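Researcher: Watch the backbone:
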Amino acid sequence: MLDRVKPPEPADRADAEEMAEAAVRETASPKVGWLRRFAPQRLTTRIVLLNLLGLIILVAGILYFNQFRQGLIDARVQSLTTQAQIIAAAVAGSATVDTGSIVIDPDSLADSSEETLPDDDQVASLDFPIDPETAGPVLKRLLANTTVRARIIDKDGNLIVDSRFLYSRGDIVQSDLPPLNPDGEGFSPIALWNRLVTWTFSYDYPKQIEYGLDNGRDFPEVAASLNGATVSLVRLNDRGQIIVLVAVPVQRFRAVLGSLVLSTTGGEIDNVLRAERQVVLMTFGFVALVTVLLSTLLASTIALPLRKLAAAAERVRRGINKRVEIPDFSGRGDEIGDLSGAVRDMTNALYNRIAAIEAFAADVSHELKNPLTSLRSAVETLAYAKTPEQRERLVDIVKHDVKRLDRLITDISDASRLDAELARGEAQAFDLSQLLMSIVSYANDTRKEDQVVVDIEVAMPPPGIDRATAYTVMGHDSRLGQVVRNLIDNARSFTRPGTKINVRVKRAGPDVEFRVEDSGPGIRPDNLERIFERFYTDRPEGSFGSNSGLGLSISKQIVDAHKGRIWAENRYGKAMQDGEKPVLGARFLVRIPAAQDA
């Protein structure tokens, strides 16, 4: 016979309406649907991508800025070196005075067939001093329309020409004045900003000491160039601005006549770097603005739903009679949607639990009133009993009602603390077939003479499943044992004398199934679901008051806590002549998920 599965309960009408409205909104705005389709669904992914994007832009800007500064300095050094070599050659060729002499013997020239050149010692002994009056105009012509400063230092270290002080008749001599507020003194916003910029973009280059009139050889770049080397340096002036210096030798016929030092004007490189820095800062400002806007948008997608959920939860906490509806954000597909669904489910479970508690309290009150009313009537009538038979009959009624109250209170107490015990207890693996055989053996050993025998049968597991673990489940053996005892007691109350109660255990796919069959009158089809309700009883005559109506309800509660299922059905015999099948009894089936390693 096929097992009848209880159909799922229909969704709440308000939830269905909200889902329909959400579908309509998404359909009405295809742009939003397109963005949601390609946007990351999880907030963690969104936050990581946004942070990485901002970090990549910031790091790329800083790296670009540093490379640009070094590249600008290298390009300026190369340009000054080429310019210095050209100027040094021009000065050596046209701005020197011949004071040395070379003695040549005509006779030796006539007798010799080889070309005669002066040797290195002779060249070194030659003296071609640089003429300042001739070198000055050469520098002025070559450095016209440039900001480069040139200085010529002779072999003795004396400064003989400085392009800063070269001027013709009618020229206006100008020099840089110190700033109005040197070193950024004061506490004005501009001064504070200049201090911050200076501290942030300060350089670690050494300070440049100004050349004197006769101490040129004290500077390493001048000394190296007087020895024939070309030297380039990066220094800072008194204002902390970058200047590039290039020192090249001024030589003629391998004789070093002096040193030519070219240097950039302070602020030339700094202005270019400042312009690039402004571009970087503007880029950073734009990125920061975009980041703020995106962060605000992201925060609104998080904070606004959370505020709505918090407000709804607060209304639930303060509400007494009104059922508060929790906002539904499950269509988002991210953590907020998961939270919304969880809060909605939790709230619905809370309301259902409250409703169940209220219904349970009402049922308990009703069920307690019945025996109390009967007990009060018997006690009040006891004073008017005239014969011993009447008095004994009333005493039996009192005893029966007291016994019924005791059983009812015990079952009520058991049902009220069942959830807490199942939540606190730790589930353990055990063999359900062994538990059933133990309970059946104990039931047969302790049965009364008028009670029927319980028979048990354990089926062989399907191929591929080990018998040792085929019937292993995770749960609470004491509570599942209570389910078995309730079903056996229930079957005994309906089974006809001379028959047996059959208990069968088998493996049904991923579940372990056991069933309890009786030979009673069966269950009316319209009561197959109601028999699991609290305090519902449909018992034969003569057994009224011996059951509380909570046994099957407690059993269903225990099975549900084990993620299982319990249901009832009738057993039918062969069809008779009129086509109707006789009812042979009732069957209760329980399925519990098998352990993972089973």
